[in-house]
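User: Hi! I'm working on a homework problem where we have to compare a predicted structure to a textbook description. Could you give me the structure for the chain below?
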Amino acid sequence: MINKRIYKRSLISEAIINHINNNIMEYIVMIIIFFIGIILGTMYINNTDLTQRHEIYSYVNDFIGDIQNGSNIDSNKLLRTSIYNNLLITILLWISGLTVIGMPIVYLIVSVKGFCIGYTISSIVATLGVTQGLKFTLSTMLLQNIIIIPSILILAVSAIKLYKAIMKDRRRENIKIEIIRYTIITIFIGVVNIISAIIETYASTNIFKIFFT
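Assistant: Happy to help. Predicted structure tokens:
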């Protein structure tokens, strides 16, 4: 039984490695676009006005205050919101990957995700200072983003792969097979992103309490 599990894990690991090796250029492009988004998000915080900075400051401090005072957080509402946001990105990438004109949207989604992460981290650090800001970021954002960022990149690369396959071979039967394969990958990524939402809601909240209470 144990040997079978090890064998299955080795097959999965091999499949992932082969997928990355076969699409290495696409991954490099996506990672560059993602980091450009992070840089733009980091730069944008410097251009926000005092009102926006005050709102960010109030939100972060109110959130920390609620945790420190033992206020209850509506975990169910937070979980629903997180699942909705994660699945929305997954569905948008899936739809974009099915259309030729959707390719720019795939790149846009990846860059916007990077922008949001860059902006969020920069605004928190600017509000709390480097030490506290990094503690806040690591406790609330690290775990789920370790999961969701690779999943977004995988789905984005799969969308590009589907586009190239359709352009290369326009036979209907082959296109159908590629779309089914792409949809299966999307469903798998959707499940992974739901797991990411659960981690964000429960695990990250508990880690946050350790740092700030």
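For your comparison, note the following. Residues 2-212 form one domain. Residues 172-212 form the longest helix (41 residues). Good luck with the assignment!
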